[in-house]
């Protein structure tokens, strides 16, 4: 199916169906809303009826409390005194009817008979066995609420058991009849339909306020009799059904209620009409927009198709499809197509760039392989020279081995002598160490003796000082003895003068004189002993000082001997070290000589092996030359395949835009100017080779040249670049060969031709660039 058919036929049809479905579902939605509203409203009305009936239970309880609290009334009922009970009930009934809206007070005997009805005093004694609610109270002795049919209509009854003096005597009920006044209290209009009387017999009682219409015919009364609670509506009213059930759960009637819902129904109909008008308007608008969109879209698609055909025919990947600045889906598609074409173009350019790099690398590899050929030739010549040198070396090594063996014999003798000297030195060292230890021990003893003699000398001096002090004390004692003797003499003289009276005193004075003489004599003896002791101590002190001097001389001599022994030990240790070193050196020399001998033998063997390796390496070098030639041939083949691919691509596809071709030209001009400068620098420095790409197919411009499909107006000039470009690189090869021959003058002559060819090449490039830029 064409886009035009889709835009003009299929989409409008699809939108029409969508609008129809929208209208259909909108209508159903509004109808559903109406249904939900009716259901919610009906539930609210039913709950309101429940609440209304429930609201009468508390007044009934209060009324019953008044009845049961009247002891006289209960007593009259217990005594079956009906007249007295009537007198008591009448005022109470009037009061309860006035204050609580009570419709009836009814006493029942325990044998299920009516005893007194407050609203019909003449009727009593009739059986109430058909009343299931009274039976339940009689059996359970518990009060209950019940909704029962009656002669005057349904009534809400509160039945309570009555006890007197602890004995059950019957039941009493207070009731509220659902009559016209109750129906007026409900919302809207309500009528009561009762189809069973109080005994369960069929009836057809309709209770309604006078001002209300009998709308019971709107209902399916048979379904109500079967217990179906229905609600429905017509153009104006919402109808509901409130089923009335007795204590046994049996349906005996219903309250039929309707409310005026004309405003709600009018709003719903208005919404439906507005929805239809809106849907039709939306349909017309959408169809118009679709037709307009189809025209614009077809125009853009036609333009897009023409542009794609041009790209396909011209194979111009640099071409861009221009469709304006709009941001619709077709414009996005055009942008994505442009991106896709540019992605293809970028892929081709990336491939060309990779090919260019690969081509340059191949050119460098070929140049390096050429240098490798030369290097391998040089290695081959060197290998031949090395083989000859190895033969000469092998002969020299054999001669050297014989000399080394003679040196090894002499070295062994020297090593044995050095070991004997080392043993003797070790013994001398041990003796010197023992003597040094003895001298050190003697020196320690001398030092101890000096210390002890100092202590004795100090004690002698102390003793001499103390003896001098004792001499002073003895002198004092002698003086005291002389004075005592003089006093005793004086006392004897005085006693003689006294005569007989002083005789006793004379005896005492004589004894004192004797004691003084004895003391003097003892002091003189002690003084003589002290003098001898003092002289002896002085002699000992002098001898100790002389002994100290001799001990000091011994200590100094011991120190001198110890120092000399240390010097001897040091010299002996040096001798031992030298002997050990000599032994070690001679042993090492012997080992080295043996090692040298072994090494010389190994060297001779290695020289022979080296000769074999050199010859094998020469053979491998020749094989490598062949492999390098094969690799060069393979690289040239790969490069030729790249060029063939480039020629095929350039004949089919425009990959490069004109601005990009200008950029290629600019890069080529700079690259070849730089190339010529490097060639000139190599000639001036007299280098032996050129370090530039010499093959035109492997330079950067040559690698990309064959991939470019030029615009028709410059194609002739573009293809004219090939010849001067090839010529420039051929002349570069000639310069390289001249430099390798060290023909620097010849290289300069060729370089002049390079300059003129380069000017021709760059001149054509400048013309191409000018033509491309002038068209832009």
Automatic annotation (TrEMBL):
<keyword id="KW-0472">Membrane</keyword>
<feature type="transmembrane region" description="Helical">
    <location>
        <begin position="6"/>
        <end position="27"/>
    </location>
</feature>
<feature type="transmembrane region" description="Helical">
    <location>
        <begin position="276"/>
        <end position="296"/>
    </location>
</feature>
<keyword id="KW-0807">Transducer</keyword>
<dbReference type="InterPro" id="IPR004089">
    <property type="entry name" value="MCPsignal_dom"/>
</dbReference>
<keyword id="KW-0997">Cell inner membrane</keyword>
<dbReference type="Pfam" id="PF14827">
    <property type="entry name" value="dCache_3"/>
</dbReference>
<dbReference type="GO" id="GO:0005886">
    <property type="term" value="C:plasma membrane"/>
</dbReference>
<dbReference type="GO" id="GO:0007165">
    <property type="term" value="P:signal transduction"/>
</dbReference>
<dbReference type="Pfam" id="PF00015">
    <property type="entry name" value="MCPsignal"/>
</dbReference>
<dbReference type="GO" id="GO:0004888">
    <property type="term" value="F:transmembrane signaling receptor activity"/>
</dbReference>
<dbReference type="InterPro" id="IPR029151">
    <property type="entry name" value="Sensor-like_sf"/>
</dbReference>
<comment type="similarity">
    <text>Belongs to the methyl-accepting chemotaxis (MCP) protein family.</text>
</comment>
<feature type="domain" description="T-SNARE coiled-coil homology">
    <location>
        <begin position="583"/>
        <end position="645"/>
    </location>
</feature>
<dbReference type="InterPro" id="IPR004090">
    <property type="entry name" value="Chemotax_Me-accpt_rcpt"/>
</dbReference>
<dbReference type="InterPro" id="IPR000727">
    <property type="entry name" value="T_SNARE_dom"/>
</dbReference>
<keyword id="KW-1003">Cell membrane</keyword>
<dbReference type="InterPro" id="IPR025991">
    <property type="entry name" value="Chemoreceptor_zinc-bind_dom"/>
</dbReference>
<keyword id="KW-0812">Transmembrane</keyword>
<feature type="domain" description="Methyl-accepting transducer">
    <location>
        <begin position="368"/>
        <end position="604"/>
    </location>
</feature>
<dbReference type="Pfam" id="PF13682">
    <property type="entry name" value="CZB"/>
</dbReference>
<protein>
    <recommendedName>
        <fullName>Methyl-accepting chemotaxis sensory transducer</fullName>
    </recommendedName>
</protein>
<dbReference type="GO" id="GO:0006935">
    <property type="term" value="P:chemotaxis"/>
</dbReference>
<dbReference type="InterPro" id="IPR029150">
    <property type="entry name" value="dCache_3"/>
</dbReference>
<keyword id="KW-1133">Transmembrane helix</keyword>
């Amino acid at each position: 199916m064409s886009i035009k058919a889709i835009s003009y036929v299929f989409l409008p049809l699809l939108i029409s169906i969508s609008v129809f479905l929208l209208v259909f579902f909108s209508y159903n939605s509004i109808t559903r809303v109406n249904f939900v509203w009716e259901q919610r409203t009906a539930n609210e009305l039913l709950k309101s009826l429940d609440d209304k009936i429930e609201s009468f239970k508390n007044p009934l309880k209060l009324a019953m409390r008044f009845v049961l609290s009247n002891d006289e009334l209960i007593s009259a009922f217990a005594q079956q005194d009906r007249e007295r009970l009537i007198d008591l009930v009448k005022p109470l009934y009037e009061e309860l009817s006035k204050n609580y809206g009570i419709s009836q007070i009814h006493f029942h005997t325990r044998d299920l008979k009516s005893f007194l009805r407050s609203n019909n005093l003449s009727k009593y004694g009739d059986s109430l066995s058909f009343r299931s609610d009274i039976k339940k109270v009689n059996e359970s002795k518990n009060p209950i609420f019940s909704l029962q049919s009656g002669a005057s209509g349904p009534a809400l009854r509160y039945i309570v058991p009555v006890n007197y003096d602890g004995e059950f005597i019957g039941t009493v009920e207070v009731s509220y009849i659902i009559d016209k006044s109750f129906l007026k209290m409900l919302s809207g209009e309500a009528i009561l339909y009762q189809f069973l009387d109080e005994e369960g017999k069929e009836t057809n009682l309709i209770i309604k306020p006078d001002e209300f219409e009998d709308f019971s015919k709107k209902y399916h009364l048979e379904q109500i009799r079967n217990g179906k609670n229905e609600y429905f509506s017509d153009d104006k009213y919402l109808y509901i059904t409130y089923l009335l059930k007795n204590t046994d759960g049996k349906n005996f009637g219903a309250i039929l209620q309707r409310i005026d819902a004309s405003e709600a129904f009018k709003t719903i109909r208005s919404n439906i009409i507005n929805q239809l008008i809106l849907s039709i308007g939306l349909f017309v608008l959408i169809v118009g927009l679709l037709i307009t969109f189809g025209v614009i879209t077809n125009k853009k698609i036609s333009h897009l198709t023409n542009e794609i055909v041009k790209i396909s025919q011209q194979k111009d990947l640099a071409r861009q499809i221009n469709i304006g600045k709009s941001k619709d889906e077709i414009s996005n598609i055009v942008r994505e197509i442009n991106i896709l074409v540019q992605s293809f173009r970028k892929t081709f350019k990336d491939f060309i760039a990779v090919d260019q790099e690969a081509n340059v690398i191949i050119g460098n590899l070929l140049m390096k392989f050429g240098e490798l050929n030369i290097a391998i030739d040089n290695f081959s010549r060197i290998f031949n020279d090395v083989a000859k040198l190895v033969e000469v070396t092998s002969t020299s090594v054999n001669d050297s081995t014989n000399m080394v063996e003679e040196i090894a014999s002499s070295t062994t003798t020297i090593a044995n002598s050095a070991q004997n000297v080392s043993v003797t030195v070790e013994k001398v060292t041990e003796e010197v160490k023992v003597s040094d230890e003895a001298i050190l021990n003697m020196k320690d003893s001398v030092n101890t003796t000096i210390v002890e003699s100092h202590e004795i000398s100090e004690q002698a001096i102390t003793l001499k000082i103390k003896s001098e002090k004792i001499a002073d004390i003895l002198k004092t004692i002698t003086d005291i003895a002389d004075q005592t003797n003089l006093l005793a003499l004086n006392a004897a003289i005085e006693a003689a003068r006294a005569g007989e009276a002083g005789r006793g005193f004379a005896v005492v004075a004589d004894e004192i004189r004797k004691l003084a003489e004895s003391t003097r004599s003892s002091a003189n003896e002690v003084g003589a002993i002290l003098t001898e002791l003092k002289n002896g101590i002085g002699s000992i002190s002098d001898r100790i000082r002389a002994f100290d001097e001799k001990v000091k001389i011994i200590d100094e001599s011991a120190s001198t001997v110890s120092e000399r022994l240390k010097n001897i030990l040091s010299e002996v240790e040096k001798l031992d070290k030298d002997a050990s070193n000599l032994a070690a050196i001679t042993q090492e020399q012997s080992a080295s000589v043996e090692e040298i001998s072994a090494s010389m033998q190994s060297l001779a063997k290695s020289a022979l092996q080296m000769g074999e390796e050199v010859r094998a390496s020469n053979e491998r070098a020749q094989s490598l030359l062949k492999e390098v030639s094969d690799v060069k041939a393979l690289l040239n083949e790969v490069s030729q395949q790249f060029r063939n691919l480039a020629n095929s691509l350039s004949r089919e596809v425009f990959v490069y835009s004109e601005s990009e071709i200008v950029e290629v030209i600019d890069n080529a001009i700079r690259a070849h100017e730089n190339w010529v400068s490097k060639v000139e620098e190599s000639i001036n420095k007299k280098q032996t080779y050129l370090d530039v790409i010499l093959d035109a197919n492997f330079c950067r411009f040559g690698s990309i040249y064959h991939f470019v499909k030029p615009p028709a107006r410059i194609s002739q000039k573009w293809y004219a670049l090939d010849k001067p470009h090839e010529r420039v690189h051929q002349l570069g090869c000639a310069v390289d060969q001249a430099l390798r021959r060290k023909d620097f003058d010849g290289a300069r002559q060729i370089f002049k031709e390079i300059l003129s060819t380069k000017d021709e090449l760059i001149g054509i490039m400048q013309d191409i660039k000018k033509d491309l830029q002038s068209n832009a």
